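User: Here's a chain of 274 residues. Predict its fold as C-alpha cells.
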Amino acid sequence: MSFDRLPSLESQPTNFRREDDPQYRDDPEFDELTSGLSDKLFTLTSNIARLSNQIALLGTKRDTDRVRERVHDLLEETRDGFKDIGEGVKKVQSWEDVSPSQKYTQQKLTREFQASLSEFQVTQRQAVEKQRASATAARTALDEQGTSPSDEQQGGQQQQQEQEQEQLRLASQDEVDFQESLIVERESEIRNIEQGVGELNELFRDVAHIVHEQGAQVDLIDANVEGVRTDTQGADLELRSASRYQKNARNKACCLLLILAVVLTVVILAVVLG
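Assistant: Prediction complete.
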C-alpha cells in the first residue's frame, strides 16, 4: 500500500462501517442471482408481447408460414426461459439467512415471475385455440376437396367428367399431400404447446408450494415470537408482583422492629426508674 494514502485513511471517521460504503453488498452472490433473473424476466415479458401480436395474425389473411415460424420460435424460447428462471426462483426462495431487504427481493421476484408465467400460459392457450381452429378448417377443406362429384353425372358425359376428375385428382395429389403434411405439423405443434402448458403449470405449483411453506414457517416464527413476548410479559408481571411482595414484607418487618424497639425502651425505662 502506498504511503501517499495514509493521510486519507487517517482522515476517515473511526466509526466508519463497511455497510456505509455504497458499493458494499451484504451478499453479492444473492444480488447477482436475483439481478440476472430480473433481467431475464424482463426479456420474457417482451417476448410475450411480441408473441401475442403474432398469434393475433393466425387464421387471418396475414397468416403466413413466416408468422407461424415466429410463433413457434417465440413459444419455444419463452417456454425454455421460464423453466430456467423458475429453477432460479426456487433457488432464491430456498436461500438461507436472508436479511429483510433480501426477503423483500425474494417476494418481489416471485410475484413478478408468477404474474408473467400466468400471462404466458394464457398466451399459449390462445395459440392452441388458433392452431386447433386452423387445423380443423384445413382438414375440412381437404376432405371436401377429396370428395368426388362424379356420382351425380350420367351417361357419356359422366364417363368423360370422371376421366377429367381423375386427371385433376392425380395432378393435385402433390398439393393434397403437402396440405396433409401441414395439417399434421399443426396438430403436432398443438400437442407440443399443450405439453408445455402442463410443464409450466407444474413449475408454477412448485414455486407456489415453496412460497406457501415459507409463509407457514414465517407464521410459526411469528407465533413463537408472540409466545415469547407473552411469556416475557407474564414473567415481568410476576417479577413486579414479587417485588411488591418483598417491599411489603420489608415494610412489615420494619414496623415490627420499631414496635419491638419501643417496647424494649419502655421496659428499660421502667426498670431504671423503678
